[in-house]
Amino acid sequence: MQEISTGPVLIREVRPRRLEHADDPSRRGKEKDRSDKVTGGGLVPGLKDWLVVERPFAERFPTAPSLPMLTVSGPPALSPARQLDLLMPLVFFYEKAGVPLPGVDFLTGDAVPEPWRYLLVHQSDMTPRLRDYHGRAPVLQVITVERTPDYVLREVVLSCSGRPVEYGAIGIHLEGFPRHVQEMIREGVCPLGAILETEGVPHSSAPTGYFGLAADPHMAELLATTPGVRLFGRCNVLSHPDGTAFADIVEVLPPG
Q1: Which stretches of the chain are DSSP H helices?
Q2: What is the reported pTM?
Q3: What stretch(es) of the chain map to CATH 3.40.1410.10?
């Protein structure tokens, strides 16, 4: 495991990203900015957003609080900065709550054991996959939420028959959606995947990393499990047909 200080990490503002090769699954994740301007009416207060090689966050937003030390490990292809990049929605909520983030061990898809591999290692939305696996539609519970006019950042739990089946941290750009879909997302009544499915919103799903972690007290409570239990999850990006990324998601599943 490797500890990295997030203080000097280079990051940018909240803005949509366009996947240069959205039509080529083997090259997804190679992203570029669609605009050099901040969107969504400004930053969510305190938001430490997705990484790019620009300049230290402290220089761009000197009044924002620093992030805690993060312990990560993973395949050689994933640098510590890239791992932090993938985990940023999760890191934001842990920092906001003042809770240390559990150590994260990034894995290849083949290293994720069943049944979590079936639930995580695929290029589709989690909501329908969870519905098919558990036999009923997941119900959304919003734990924490931050908003700007065009951006929603929330911490959630999905449950089936009253039992938690997923913990999630997700940032959603509302630009590019019909107005009624934007309102449905803001209301936080249904999971994002269910909204995209029922409203027929075309999009693509591109997982960017898989990981394991030991449940800390915060996540253990939300997933109705015991601290220290091994959990598995993934980082995912959802994009519009033109390749513009509209959601960055960290999804963690409870033990089987």
Answers
A1: 57-60, 80-97, 116-120, 126-134, 179-187, 192-198, 217-222
A2: 0.76
A3: 111-253
With 70 as the cut, is the pLDDT of residue 46 above it?
Answer: no
CATH superfamily of 111-253: Chorismate lyase-like (3.40.1410.10)
**Which residues are CB-contacts of 148 (< 8 A; sequence separation ≥ 6)?**
14, 40, 41, 42, 43, 44
Supply the pLDDT for residue 81: 79
DSSP 3-state of 173: strand
Predicted pLDDT at 243: 93
Residue type for 237, please? V
Closest CA relative to residue 29, chosen from 84, 76, 71, 85: 85
Question: At a CB cut-off of 8 Å and minimum separation 6, what does 189 contact?
Answer: 140
Bridge-based pairing of strands 163-173 and 151-160 is: antiparallel
The tokens 């590019």 sit on which residue?
Answer: 176
b/e sequence 56-83, b meaning 16+ C-beta within 10 Å: ebeeebeeeeebbebbbbbeeebebebb
Q: pLDDT tens across 70-122, in order?
A: 455 566 566 777 888 889 899 999 988 888 889 899 999 999 999 999 999 99
What is the three-class DSSP state of 72?
Answer: strand
pLDDT of residue 16: 47
